[in-house]
Amino acid sequence: HQEDMKIVFQGKNNFKNLDYISCWFFKASEYVESGGKYSFVTTNSICQGVQVEMLWPHVFNHNCEIFFAYKNIKWTNSARNTAGVTVCIVGIRSVGEGEKYIFDERRRSKVDNISPYLIPGEDVIATKRKRPISNLPKLEGGNQPREGGYLILSDAEKEEIIKSTPEIKKYVRPLCGSSEFINSIPRWCIWVREDQVEEANKIPELKDRFRKIKILREDGNTVEKNFIKYPYRFVMVKEASISQIIVPVVSSERREYLPLGFLDKNVIILNSASAIYDSDPYVFSIMSSKIHMVWVKAVAGQLETRIRYTSGVCYNSFPMPDFGDHEKSEMTRLGMQVLAAREAYPDKNISDLYDPDKMP
Fold first, then answer.
1. Closest CA to 67 of 33, 34, 103
2. How many CA atoms lie less than 13 Å away from 110 in the CB half-sphere?
3. Cβ(172)–Cβ(189) under 8 Å?
4. Is residue 271 a contact partner of residue 263, using CB atoms and an 8 Å limit?
5. 352 CB burial (10 A radius; 0-12, 13-18, 19+)
6. Half-sphere exposure for 302 (CA within 13 Å, toward CB)
7. How far apart are CA 194 and CA 205, in angstroms?
8. What is the pTM of this model?
9. How far apart are the first and last CA of the chain?
10. Could you tell me which of 270, 274, 222, 217 has the C-alpha nearest to residue 245?
11. Rounded distance, CA 52 to CA 350, Å?
């Protein structure tokens, strides 16, 4: 497939991560440039996230436009009647007269124009960026373990290890990834800083775990081998000094708001989530807003139909004006009210609180 794509996109850059179906869109657009139309059933990922900027400028450069679209159809296996993949149907024609329609379940909507995200609007594309276009702090990945599970503890394992070896307690920290945060699953990790290694190695239980991690990394891949000398810690280590915002990487498309968390500095965030370390609290309000969710649902990539929140497209490309101190203070106050509203229901997890059918 890669060889085919090199032939089709010869002379073009940034195509290697496109789905194979993009070859057919590109070639068909060449054929209908002077008149004609085509349509394909396609993986819906070419109309989401980073693939939009990779493919659709090439289509539009051939004097083409989208004239109809069926969004998010679950392609089922006829034998088992189970969904295998989520697809869409996109119709392309040379630019000209004629009506344009978006189909969603049993509805047909007439629109002035269909963007490559298959929503009504202009052919504007949110490009992947390395830094925020707006005045926002950096969003980055959480901590990457690659330690074979020797530094990660379940709730029961944490209780057991502290009971048998009480001196380990000072090295145990709460651990939180996307699933742990959304579903209120307690997990823990052994977190030893560089200046604590000598002291930690005096504890037989920890010394044995470090030994096993070193052996594991000696037989690991290139990244793991680079950290053979640091068997007491995760491969990537980041922690907050004051507070932190946790951003789950995958979220249900049914939610009206992103299920973010404002966490204590003691919590270690796993790489199954993204994080903003030591951010001004008003940023939590911006990301919790309805308008940010509208943006994310429009431009994000998806896993099946679930939202995949990425820094490059969802966060860094989010357009936002600068705010004054009074506005930031007001947003901070409102964000704290969101957190206070959650705390009024301590028996419910984030999954329930942000479910539109279950939200109190």
1. 103
2. 2
3. yes
4. no
5. middle
6. 24
7. 18
8. 0.83
9. 49
10. 274
11. 31
